[in-house]
Design brief:
The complex is a heterotrimer of chains A (261), B (292) and C (225).
Chain A (H helix, E strand, L loop, with lengths): L12 H4 L21 E3 L2 E6 L2 E7 L2 E3 L2 E4 L5 E5 L2 E8 H21 L7 H17 L6 E8 L5 E6 L5 E3 L2 E3 L2 H11 L13 H18 L6 E8 L3 E9 L20
Antiparallel strand pairs in A: 1-4, 1-7, 2-3, 2-11, 3-12, 4-5, 6-7, 7-8, 8-9, 9-10, 12-13
Helix pairs in contact in A: 4-5
Chain B lengths: L21 H11 L4 E6 L2 E9 L14 E3 L3 E7 L1 H22 L5 H14 L11 E9 L29 E7 L5 E3 L2 E4 L3 H10 L9 H16 L7 E9 L9 E3 L2 H22 L10
Antiparallel strand pairs in B: 1-2, 1-8, 2-9, 3-4, 4-5, 5-6, 6-7, 9-10
Chain C lengths: L25 E6 L2 E6 L3 E3 L2 E4 L5 E5 L2 E7 L1 H21 L6 H14 L6 E9 L3 E7 L6 E3 L1 E4 L7 H7 L6 H18 L7 E7 L2 E7 L8 E3 L2
Antiparallel strand pairs in C: 1-2, 1-10, 2-11, 3-4, 5-6, 6-7, 7-8, 8-9, 11-12, 12-13
Helix pairs in contact in C: 1-2
The chains are: A alpha+beta (261), B alpha+beta (292), C alpha+beta (225).
């Protein structure tokens, strides 16, 4: 390293010629490119005839390291709306605080009036789109669930670009590849939702969490699950354990082809 | 006010030779004409109540509320100029939100009162502004549950945090009253506005400093006190408006809310009855008028 | 901990960000009377040990301390700012700041400046109302409440050790044993961790420092050293 402090952090004159100090000017484009660091994986949700079931595991990964194991990614907003977060945990916490202040402010204007899941989804989609347009996205994909203005089950997604999507079944991240096709067997379109019972929906989601635990290398066997109905509000359980896993068949596997012992 | 007319009362921020700021004293006059407001610090919560004078029959009953919420756990009510009160509340909300963005937790009632006191006081210092024409009562409940950082995830040890000291101070009710000068004190019971003298006399009878008054009983007392304080302006119609805050395990779950209508009606019914009873008992006697 | 020097790469123009990725180990745990913080004492510039007796346990208020890992310059700046805020809070309010207050301030700084900072922090503190609490703030600026937290590159070597031997509500003696045992493993396997073991025990009685030296088998001198 050069012993002259003036030269520190600058290209060497002997290699690059005299340093052009105009490069030091602070005006110009502002780059915020970031990357997610501590992350949560999939979130899944299914509509059933009188509500919604949503689940996400309790893991926050740091690269491939399973770093934090009690991270609750289903964040209730009130008794009729909940957001499930995938992606960066620090951005999830930012959004959690933002929604908290939204709730406080909403109460100032009209005490007792509560925002429903649809309102929340619209709000979040605007926030996400604004941030991606500022080239400073919030690195999340979320499922917003709950009841809409007519107290009907509501399920919709928003991602880091502000893209929104609705369907009777939704899954983010790895779940989009593995869980969504399985969940579609339950309800392929809106007309089939009326035939889905709460029990069937919960069982299907639990089955998908199991498949994801088998096949998603960033997943955990402890998870949170919530059911939202008009009658029961948000019923959230945050320390569930996967049940009925199938591993014993490993006993029948020998070698990688022709081996018999 | 013997110095009135000497010219020292025409401008804010100017002292009179005997050390008074007349503009502030005039602001107090504006407060003295306002509807009575009271705050009671109970064992398990805070009650705010106000006598809302009905200035027109064309106003919808129950609309145009005078008690405002700041953050979730604090209530503000003020006597005096209503628009000044609104601006005061708006500032209180800004302070609460700025506190949250710095410390990731709700603002303690005491800290809010301090910041608002400083804000009001600043309006006595400059000739370009006038003092606030309100006296505000700020009441709330600082959570006594384990404090969380907004947005935090994860859990501590399942056995709970080690080394907690029993009886260490944690949360509880807070009640403050801020005057046009910026002066503020913490109170067990606070009253301001037209009927403040009668209200104060009633509050003093409650032995609030013992900290034994239950919230529900406090609601009944608050309604009665507003009715007593209204005696002197009987010719005007009024609405009783009342709000409360309790601890997380109390009726409001730590939030500042309007007292539910069923309870409010019950309190009003009892207050009216108490007033009738008083008329019969004291009827001709005493007739002691509280001095204005 | 890494000294902020040797920034220029071979070509003389590219800043070598890898200099930040080297290591150390630090941790904080809750126990029955409060919290214990612990750290090694090695600061490296590449493979060179720039300081072999570093103190990585930083006080930000009477009984609120933190373990810093990542860029020394960044984490010191962040700790100084938080220390200023907590000092101010302490004199302006009757009730002093809590560990939660400190964690909130750290989190805001780390999150808002995530593009510019390379700072991983563990915040541990004690107050009478909330007892002992440990928070972890990893690189992106998220905030995690934990029964115990480990950090620094050396920590990857002791995830298994800590998970196996962790017990809730340990006595002070057990707690010190756990922290020392874990740090010894990290020092043993991680080239970027080393030197002495420093501990700070935070309880209702205040902050007490401990020191354990490698040439004494990490047995002494111990408390108050």
């Amino acid at each position: 390293m050069n012993h002259l402090p003036q030269a520190w952090g600058r290209p060497r004159d002997d290699i690059y010629g005299h340093y052009d100090p105009s490069h030091l000017q602070t005006a110009g484009p502002n780059a915020h490119t970031q990357q997610p660091i501590v992350t949560g994986t999939s979130v899944l949700a299914v509509k059933f005839k009188d509500g919604i079931v949503i689940a996400a595991d309790n893991l926050a990964s740091y690269g491939s390291l399973a770093r934090f194991t009690h991270v609750h990614r289903l964040r209730p907003f009130n008794d009729r709306a909940l957001v499930g977060f995938g992606g960066d945990i620090s951005d999830m916490q930012y959004l959690d605080r933002l929604l908290n202040s939204l709730d406080v402010n909403e109460n100032y204007g009209s005490p007792g009036h509560v925002l429903n899941a649809q309102n929340l989804h619209t709000y979040l989609s605007k926030v996400m789109y604004k941030r991606r347009s500022d080239m400073n996205p919030l690195w999340n994909s979320m499922l917003v669930v709950g009841l809409d203005g007519d107290d009907k089950p509501f399920l919709s997604s928003v991602d880091l670009l502000g893209t929104t999507f609705s369907s009777p079944t939704l899954a983010t991240g790895f779940g989009g590849h593995l869980a969504q096709p399985l969940l579609r067997k339950l309800a392929d379109d809106e007309s089939q939702v009326k035939d889905v019972t709460r029990e069937k929906a919960v069982a299907a989601v639990q089955e998908c969490m199991k498949v994801l635990f088998y096949r998603d290398a960033r997943s955990l066997d402890s998870y949170s699950i919530a059911v939202i109905t008009k009658e029961g509000g948000v019923e959230l359980k945050e320390d569930e354990q996967l049940e009925g896993q199938s591993w014993a068949f490993a006993d029948t596997i020998r070698g990688y082809g022709t081996q018999v012992n | 006010m013997t110095s009135i007319g000497t010219g020292y009362d025409l401008q804010n921020s100017v002292f009179s030779p005997d050390g008074r700021n007349f503009q502030v004293e005039y602001a107090v006059k504006a407060v003295e004409n306002g509807g009575t407001c009271i705050g009671i610090r109970c064992k398990n919560g805070i009650i705010l109540a106000t006598e809302k004078i009905i200035t027109s029959k064309l106003l919808r009953p129950g609309a145009n509320r005078r008690i405002a919420t700041v953050d979730r756990n604090i209530g503000v009510v003020s006597a005096g100029l209503v628009p000044d009160g609104r601006h005061f509340v708006s500032r209180a909300r800004d302070e609460a939100s700025s506190w949250r963005s710095t410390y990731k937790a709700p603002i303690p009632v005491k800290a809010l009162a301090g910041r608002l006191g400083s804000y009001v006081q600043a309006y006595t210092l400059y000739s370009s502004v006038r003092p606030f024409g309100i006296t505000a009562i700020v009441g709330g409940w600082d959570t006594d549950a384990e404090t969380k950082v907004d947005g935090q995830v994860g859990i501590g040890p399942a056995v709970g945090s080690g080394g907690k000291v029993d009886g260490a101070k944690k949360g509880g009710p807070g009640l403050y009253m801020i005057e046009p000068s910026g002066l503020y004190w913490g109170y067990y019971g606070a009253a301001t506005g037209k009927g403040r003298q009668a209200a104060k006399a009633e509050l003093e009878k409650l032995d609030l400093s013992s900290g034994t008054l239950e919230l529900e009983a406090g609601v009944m007392e608050a309604a009665r006190i507003i009715y007593v304080a209204h005696e002197d302006s009987k010719d005007k119609d009024f609405e009783l408006e009342m709000s409360w805050v309790s601890s997380v395990d109390g009726p409001t779950k730590g939030r500042h809310e309007q007292v539910p209508s069923s309870l409010l009606e019950e309190a009003e019914r009892r207050a009216k009855k108490a007033m009738e009873g008083e008329d019969e008992e004291t009827g001709s006697g005493e007739g002691e008028k509280m001095e204005e | 901990m890494v000294r902020s020097s040797g920034m220029l790469g071979e070509d003389g123009i590219h800043v070598d960000m890898n200099h930040l990725k080297t290591g150390e180990v630090n941790m904080a745990i809750t126990f029955c009377d409060g919290v214990i913080l612990g750290a090694d004492s090695r600061t490296t510039t590449g493979a060179y040990i720039a300081n072999r007796v570093t103190d990585k346990l930083t006080q930000v208020h009477d009984t609120i301390w933190c373990c810093r890992s990542g860029s020394a310059a960044d984490t010191q700046a962040v700790a100084d700012i938080v220390s200023y805020h907590l000092g101010l809070y302490g004199v302006m309010h009757e009730e002093g700041p809590t560990t939660q207050t400190a964690a909130g301030l750290f989190q805001e700084l780390c999150y808002d400046n995530k593009d510019r900072l390379s700072a991983g922090m563990i915040i541990a503190g004690y107050d009478q109302r909330n007892g002992g609490n440990v928070y972890s703030i990893p690189l992106g600026g998220s905030l995690h409440k934990q029964p115990y937290a480990i950090g620094g590159s050396g920590s990857t070597y002791i995830y298994g050790y800590c998970d196996s031997y962790w017990k809730e509500g340990m006595s002070e003696e057990e707690g010190i044993g756990f922290v020392k045992g874990a740090l010894r493993e990290a020092i043993k396997w991680d080239g970027s961790s080393g030197g002495v073991i420093r501990l700070v025990v935070l309880t209702n009685k205040g902050a007490v420092r401990h020191l354990y030296l490698p040439d004494q088998g990490y047995k002494g001198p111990g408390k108050g050293a």
